[in-house]
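[Meeting: bench + compute handoff]

Bench side (C.D.) handed over the final construct sequence. Compute side (W.E.) agreed to return the predicted structure before the next meeting so the bench team could plan truncations. Sequence as handed over:
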Amino acid sequence: MSEQIRQLLPLKANRRGIDRWSMGALIIAVLVVLPIAAVVWFALTPTDNIWPHLISTTFPRYLRNTVILMLSVGALTAVVGTITAWVVAMYRFPGRSWLQWALLMPLAVPAYVGAYALVDFLEYAGPVQSALRDLMGWENAADYAFPAIRTRSSAVIVLSASLYPYVYLLARAAFREQSGAGFEVARALGVGPLGRFFRVGLPLARPAIAAGVAVVMMETVNDFGTVDYFAVQTLTTGIFTVWLQGGNLGGAAQLATCVLGMIVFLVTLEKLSRRRSKFFASARGQRPVSLTQLSGGQGAFAFSVCLLPILIGFVLPVSVLTSHALDAGQWVAPGLRKALLHTVTVAGLAAILTVLGGLFMVYGVRLSRRKLPRLLMPVTAIGYAAPGAVLGLGILVPLAALDNRFADAVLALTGRDPGLLVTGTAGVLVIAYVVRFFAIAQGTADAAFGRVSPSLPMAARSLGQSSGGVLKRIYLPLMRASVGSALLLVFVDAVKELPATLLLRPFSYDTLATRVHAKASLENISEAAPAALMITCVGLLAVIFLAKAQKEGLRR
């Protein structure tokens, strides 16, 4: 009996430590949620309420363009992602083995980069119109009619080409997980390929498709670079206009609150859709779907259907940028190396802090027996759903006020002005990236902790290990791959982030994303191309890792 009591003593002694872990988790959760709360506070307490003026002037246009973009991009990505996922999941044809992974490659190209490439490709001096003039003998634009390029429709095409992989990835997984028995029964009853798609495959995959479309629509609301380049006024561009050009914080916060409301609506709608549409596989081992062989014209058609999104979303922008980047002088242009260094520094530091914070919070919540940390943990995911412009607003204003008060106090005590220690440095970008992408680290850590057998940490605790020792010696070695994937994903997303970086970066502090935006806005695609290609190469790392993870999942 005394031996059993002795083994239980470490557990009782460490219960006091649980409070420290839960308190740390609570502090992290509050810090992540604070920027969103600040935006709502600014919207409810504006110093100069211009909301009536916004409603009567620009707000209807902002809202209309945003809703049209969301619905259009959501519908187009649903069609493209679902059809391509169905083709590669149900049929075998020449080229399928690499097309199913190549369909993920447009994720590596940010939408704003695709916008710059499309305009350069189709503009008056671009290769398309130049070839038409040479072929038809036209001398100038007055001799022929060419569709306008910088329009809302072009923005829909660019955003859809960049974002459809979200739908494709989830739909493909849903199709592959379906039992082949259902399709065999439908085929035996005389149901054709279209009937099997609409009556069997699509209804079962609808929750996954809805989840992918919801993510696409949230990313559409978050976009700034694409809509700004195509001169489409949305709620996100309105935040920049009202705050930076109009100088009205309250009005910008009110627009940001509208954006948050739309995001919350989308998230709620997606969760309700999944809850109301539940499908369960048989408890017995189910047969996988047997692929149908396509050859000849059918195989060529399937190949073309899958190749077209890749050409528009990846091959076209990369080819255009590469043609401009062939000039070796652009790779040593002033500012490019510094922008690369800034990007790697802030994105790398943000990735490390985000993953450490995610691990600490998830572990603290698992140890805690209190309800508040458990209730706050899902709320921290709202940072990923919130657009970068919204987070920039909620981070910059409170931190600037604290920075100024601290600087005034130091000046009064020492006679020296320390300047803005946070908002005047790249530290504010790191904070923004941590809040923006905290959900990635938190979700990855939560899933990784769940895969560790509870018997292992219990055995370590019974042998006298503290909570920190269990984390260090048991969990982290088993979670190494998950931690690495979280670091990579946060790093890649931070490299591509544009709206928050534009709002928060210190004066003359460029990253690759802001350099691409600045050069492209001046129609200088040649100088923007090297930085854009660097961003694309970083994005390809995430795509390769994702494809590798998918392959390992299929082998299992």
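W.E. noted at the follow-up: Strands lie at 91-92, 292-293. C.D. will use this when planning the next construct.
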